[in-house]
Design brief:
The protein is of the alpha+beta class and 99 residues long. The protein is 29% helix and 27% strand. It has four helices and five strands. A five-stranded antiparallel sheet has the order 4-3-2-1-5. A hairpin with a 2-residue loop joins strand 1 and strand 2. It is globular, with a radius of gyration of 16 Å. The chain starts with 16 loop residues before the first helix and ends with a helix. The relative contact order is 0.20.
């Protein structure tokens, strides 16, 4: 008896775990669904939006930063304007250059 063919399953694309723990890579915001946390990972080219009240992630991978920002606009997700410039600097340069 032969074993059935198995299709390889890749891990889902997501921000690198290190990125999720960096305070400068995560920014708060709002959407029609309520408060959100927004993250972008330069290592995996992956953006994520965490919908706080629903406890649900939306992942956008792989996606360049500029396209992720356009996606946020299309989905009417607005990040904290006071922190936006520092967040953009941090996520566009990566952890080693943002400090």
């Amino acid at each position: 008896m032969t074993a059935p063919n198995r299709m390889p399953v890749r891990a889902p694309a997501a921000p690198d775990p290190e990125t999720l723990t960096r305070g400068d890579a995560v920014i708060s915001g709002t959407s029609s669904a309520g408060p959100v946390l927004v993250v972008y990972c330069t290592r995996n080219h992956c953006g994520g939006v965490y919908f706080v009240e629903q406890e649900l992630w939306a992942m956008y991978c792989p996606m360049p930063l500029a396209e992720f920002l356009r996606t946020l606009e299309r989905r009417r997700i607005v990040v904290d304007p006071d922190a936006r410039e520092n967040w953009l600097l941090a996520v566009s340069t990566g952890p080693e250059k943002a400090n």
